[in-house]
Every structure is written in structure tokens, then in C-alpha cells.
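User: two proteins, same treatment. go.

Assistant:
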Amino acid sequence: MKVEFAPLNIPLARRLQTAAVLQWVLSYLLLAQACVGIIAVLIIHNYWFLYVPYLTWLYFDWRTPEQGGRRSNWVRSWTVWRYFKDYFPIHLIKTWDLDPCHNYIFGFHPHGVLVAGAFGNFCTDYSAFKELFPGFTAYLHVLPCWFRCPLLREYLMSTGPVSVSKKSVSHVLSKEGGGNISVIVLGGAEESLDAHPGKFTLFLRQRKGFVKIAMKHGASLVPVFSFGENELFKQVNNPEGSWLRRVQEKFQKVMGFALPLFHARGIFQYNFGIMPYRKPIHTVVGRPIPVLQTPHPTPEQIEELHQTYLEELRNLFEEHKGKYGIAEHETLIFK
């Protein structure tokens, strides 16, 4: 196979975009290990004046990811995130006006490999979110395991994410005055194992907890589809029932997160590497589904609203797929 190298005369802006995305990918892959290593070094060398105060503070701060987090406008406005957004590029599209006096749940689809669209749109100040949804604050809910790693949790919270636990979602949706959005990647880690280019498989059939919590708080449901999310990486072939898929699923059950074996392009060549492809991401926010507050919803009520949500999500996909190069015969597959 002939290696296709990147030309030497690439503009500086594009090189900076590549660097921005590279640090983001490496943070996902290596930052947790690095943070644990730092704490271990401090303990081994008995720098107690550093690790004792931090671990003491960590004990009292443990629940912060379930209580709205601790975002930093300074971190969210780092220039690196502008270059990150422009690499793909990432676009946010609004199709319906939302009432800032109400709270909402954005169901984000698909998960993709690294959820680049959700991060770029809701965890940085360089998307069009503030202009399109004035008066709103978005909280991207991620797996609780990410907040159990010392030091990493501080960096992660600074960009806005919070835990995806029930307590955390309830905390956001119970805020008085409205204007709060819980962004939940509903397919979860399991869906990332099916994030192959050209596939539109969503793990939603058995995921109804978001419907129940929406009804308890009277929060409107909004389907969101991120076109291009599954096009950023390729994965080692892992069909259901294969030995690789079984290993990945077992790992996910034990560790709480999936381990897709992804690859795309390199830094200085286009054939192989961990850098995502430069594919545009169009995150389309659909029409809100009004939800009547029901403190104790019945299974029948939950099922009815869940079916309504699936229908609205499919309608959103069908209405916009042609704009983003998806063939007419392609449709969503719910598992």
C-alpha cells in the first residue's frame, strides 16, 4: 500500500487544527493514566504537602459532578477549541425555538467513537450554541467513571461535563427558572462498538430511563442527530457474535466503558493513525416533545412517550439526511 503523505505547504491554521484534535484524542486515550501516575509519584516520593491536601479536598468534593459540576469559562474559551471545531468542521443547526423558561433533555445520537460533535457543540464556547439558544446552559452528561480519576475530573469538569447518574440529571432538570439542558448520549458506550461509517444503528429500544426522568420533572424531550459522527473513524471489524465483540462487551460490563479499536488517518500521512478524518459534523437539534410532569409515571405512559420519541427521532433523520449526503434508502435501525 502506497503511503499518502500530507503536503509540506499546508497552511498554519490547518496544522494548528490538527494539533488541537491530536491533544484531544490523546487526552481521551492517555490523560487518565497520566493523572494516576502523577498521584502515584507524589505518594511514592512522599510529597505529602501536595497529595494530602488534594485528596482531603477531593473527599469533600466527590459529589460535585452530580451537582452541576464546576465549569470554567476560561477553559471553555481556550483558542485550542476553536481550532478543534474548525478541523472537521462542526456545525450546530437549530430547527425549532425553545422556551428558556423550561428545562429540556437533548437526546444526542449517534454516540460515534469519541462523541466529537457533542463535545464541540456543548463543551466549548466556539459553537453557535449561545447564539442559537440564548438564555440556556447545556450540561453534557458522561459516564461517572471519568470523575473517579483524580486530577482528570477537574480538567473534565472545567469544560462543562457532569455525571450521567440519575441524581445528576435530576439536579439539572430540577433547577428553578428553566433554561437548563441535559445533553445525554442515549446510546451509551455500547453504541460506540457499532459506530462504523455508513451505519445508523442506535441502541434505544431498552433505554427508557431518560423518558421516566423527563416525566418526573416535566422536561421536554428533544431529539438531536449528529450527521457525520460515525464517519470520523473506522473500526476493526467486530460484528455481533464475533470473538472481538464478545471481548469488547465483557470489557464494557467490567469497566463501565467500551473499547472500540478505531483508526483513521495519521498526523503527517492520510493512510493510518488515530486522528479522525476531516469529515463535517452537522448536529441538528429537532422539535421538542412536550412532556406533562408526572411524579409517578406508569410503564404504559413511559412506553407511549418512548415510542413518540423514537418516531420524532426517525422523522428528524429522514427530513435532513438528504442535505448531508445520506442515500434515500438509508434509515435508522433501533436495537
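Protein 2:
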Amino acid sequence: MAERGYRSPVREKHAEETRRMIVEAATELFAERGYGRTSVAAVAAAAGVAVNTVYTSVGGKPALLIALAEDGVADEAALETDRLVAASSDPREIIRLVAEGTGKVRRRRQKALAVLLDNRDADPDVAAAAEVALRGIRDRIAVVAARLVEVGGLRGGLSRKKVEQILWFYFGIEAWRTARGFGWSWAEAGGWLAEQATKALVSAGVTPR
């Protein structure tokens, strides 16, 4: 009988912590110096690990970009929003949850998103990682759109695709960047975006709960 491989929870926790420190260090350096001017050695030094540890834990520079994009997609605030949206049957509440959830993720991941979105035209590696991040957001919004159509209470004539597009308009990357660019607080921006999205999507005959 083949022996089962032993998995040490302590070792796995340490490996995950090491990976987290490396990705965070890479994000800070990419934001400060730019992707092209940041070396793997610099990331290792900032994270307090050996260069080889960066490669074994995450990979080279392209892998570091993908890692910071994937970490944003799997942010715990986004996962919690997914659960809350799935449990709600109130379209107004769902939109409010999306506003709160996307706001939390944008606030926590703003440096990483800036690295990806501001430099995607300059480097194919950055462009590939940016697409991972954007696809993750689009996929999540598509799930919300399907949930809104399922629970009902929407304005007449809205297809699932149109609902998805409206959600992207109000809660996609550019909407948050524009609102924040006006100098609005995160709470002010989220409240306004939720209000406008509700007007665009929810039937006037649906009573707020």
C-alpha cells in the first residue's frame, strides 16, 4: 500500500505567510519603482527572504503579477459579498451589498490595481495580469446580475446581459476610480454609486425593505 504524504499544517501556514509577504513586497515595489525597474532580488530583500525563496514560493516577476491579481480576486471581502448576495432576495439590498463589497476590495487592493491598470499598455506581462484581475471582477458581476434577474423586481426590458453591463458601469474599476478622483470618500462614493445603480435597475414599484 502506498504511503500517504504527510502535510504539516504548521509548514503550510508558514509557506502561505511567506508567500503573502513576498506578494505584498512585490506590490509595494512595483507601485514605487515600476514593474520594469523592480528586480526579483529587490523583492526578496524587501520581503526578508532569499531570492530562491521568491522563485519557489511564487515564481519570477510575471508570476508575482499574476499572484497579486489572483489575490485581489480571492479577497475575503469579495468572497463574503458573494455569500451575502446569494442569500438575499431583495434587489435593493443586493445592490447595496455590491457597493459595500466592491468598495472594500478597491480600498484594500488599490495599489495592486494601480500597478496593473496603469502599466498594462507598457508591458505584456502586466497586461496579462490585469486581464486576470478584470476577468475576475467581470465574472463576479455576472453572478450578481444573474441573481438580480432571479430575484426579480427589476425595471422592465432589462436582459441579464444589460443588467450585467449596468452593474459594470457603476461598480467596475473605472467607476470607483472616477468617484475617488473627485475627492469623494469611500463611503460617499459607495453610497452614490449604489443609489444610481438602484435607480437604473430596480423597478419604482419595488418597496425598499
